[in-house]
Every structure is written in C-alpha cells, then in structure tokens.
Amino acid sequence: MELLDEHRCFSGQQQRWRHHSQALNCAMTFSIFLPPETDAPPPVLYWLSGLTCTDENFTTKAGAQRVAAELGIALVMPDTSPRGDEVADAEGYDLGKGAGFYLNATVAPWASHYRMYDYLRDELPKVIAENFKVADRCAISGHSMGGHGALIMALKNPGRFRSVSAFAPIVNPSAVPWGKKAFTAYLGEDEIQWHQWDSCALLEKADPAHAIPTLVDQGDSDPFFGEQLQPERLDDAARKAGWPLTLRMQPGYDHSYYFIATFIEEHLRFHAQHLR
Asked: Which percentage of the chain shows pLDDT scores above 90?
C-alpha cells in the first residue's frame, strides 16, 4: 500500500491510501479516519458515497471527524467505482467511473472491473484489518447511490454489520431511471437478475431474525425525491418484512452535502449505540 496523504485531525489521523485491488483488477484509493488511540481498537463505520463522488467527498465535506473522534469510531471511505485507463467508462455521469452501484457486473465490457460488491464485502475489510488496529465490529452508511450500496450490503450479509443508515438512498433501483440504466448496462436485460441488488426486493426475502437497526434520512426538497428515490417504497417493504426501519423526512433539505453535514452527527451517534 502507498500512503498518499495524511493530516492530524481532532487528535486522530485522516489518511488516504492507494492499493492494488484484485477484485477490481486496478489500483484503488480509500480514505480512512483513525480516532485518537486508546487501549481498545475502534469499531469501523464504512461510508459509501454517491454518483460522481470519490473517496474524498465525504472526507472533506461531511464534517464527520469531530464526532467520530469523540465516539472512538474509525471511518473508512472507499471510492465509488474502479478507476484507470483500462477501466470501461461512459459519457454520462450515472454510468461507468464514479457510478459503480456497488454490485458485481456480469456483462462486457463492465464485468472485468466493476465488482464493487466483492471489493467491499471481502477485499477492503481484509486490507483494513491487516493494516490498521481496528475492531471487527462494523456498521455501514452512505448517500444516494451509496445509500443503496449500504442497504444492499447489510441485507445481503446477515450478521456482518451492527447497524445501517443512509441519506437519500436509491431504495428501489430496479424501478427508477438511475437504476434501470445502470442495471441494464452492468447486468443485462433480465430484470430477475436485478432484484439481488435492489433493497426493496431483498427485503421481501429478509429474515427478521437477522434484522439490524436501520436509519434513513430524506430531504423533502430533494430534486430527485419523487422520480429516483421514493423512500416510501422502502418503508412499505420494511414494514411488511418486520425490519426495524426509522425513516425521517427532513423538511427543506435537498440532496447535497449540506444535508449530510446537518445530520451526520445523529447518524454517528446512532451507530455508536450499536457498535459498543
């Protein structure tokens, strides 16, 4: 691994690293905030960012480090897609680099690199465990496309995470334009294959015995609210599945990092309760 950047931050360390990913067949970067050292290694919160983002958006805009330092939580921020000259891309912002959708692509030319699910489930946690003094307790959160990623990671891996939260997540990608475009490209035309990457579809088969506390915040002034996000679908699916979801509509808030910065402290304290 190569250390790219390091800064003292709230008596902890904010770092950025590059490593070769076997899952993605390319070099990847991730950011990590390590809280002040104590006798006990800190639990980890994974943060998944949205379309067009890198590992640095949350790091520089959310203002999460102060509370993470207080609570003794390490923050891990991966990139949103594979990168490099050999990696397939598209002209639009919502497909290709910066738009990995946290799944395993099965269709050419995407399948050779776009395996973000395997990277997040297996490879990155191993890299973190082998190179940093952290506990094995973890939680996951994300925004928009990353909210979708956080939810499917939690639903597809019972017992892995203590809690999950999301800001303005794409909850039913099989049924909205962003998801339909990405899933058709990455997975092909068979919509049955899409359901394994769709939170609402996964909730239909979820075992309530494996349910974990779930918090979702959605701004009612979000321009993507009606067409792309539709959190009421997740709320309905969770209620039918007996899944403990708290959905909070936040008046006047949009889709930006100002929204995330406003409520990130509440999300961190929510996760801290379950990471103890």
From this structure: 99
- Give residue 193's pLDDT: 95
Burial of 61 (0-12, 13-18, 19+ CB in 10 A): middle
Mind spelling out the 3-state secondary structure of the chain?
Answer: CEEEEEEEECCEEEEEEEEEECCCCEEEEEEEEECCCCCCCCCEEEEECCCCCCCHHHHHHCCCHHHHHHHCCEEEEECCCCCCCCCCCCCCCCCECCECCCCECCCCCCCCCCEHHHHHHHHHHHHHHHHCCCCCCEEEEEECHHHHHHHHHHHHCCCCCCCEEEECCCCCHHHCHHHHHHHHHHHCCCHHHHHHHCHHHHHHCCCHHHCCCEEEEEECCCCCHHHHHCHHHHHHHHHHHCCCEEEEEECCCCCCHHHHHHHHHHHHHHHHHHHC
Mapping DSSP onto H, E and C, the string for 115-147 reads EHHHHHHHHHHHHHHHHCCCCCCEEEEEECHHH
d(CA 191, CA 219): 29
Q: What are residue 207's phi and psi, to 5 degrees?
A: -90, 115
Q: Is the pTM of this model over 0.90?
A: yes
**Per residue in 124-182, pLDDT tens?**
999 999 999 999 999 999 999 999 999 999 999 999 999 999 999 999 999 999 999 99
Q: Give the Cα-Cα-Cα angle 19, 197, 135 (nearest 5 degrees).
A: 45
Instruction: Write the pLDDT tens digit of every residue in 201-253.
Output: 999 999 999 999 999 999 999 999 999 999 999 999 999 999 999 999 999 99
User: So which residues are the catalytic ones?
Assistant: 144, 222, 255
For the record, the structure tokens of 68 come out as: 């993470």
Give the integer Cα–Cα distance in Å for 12 and 272.
17
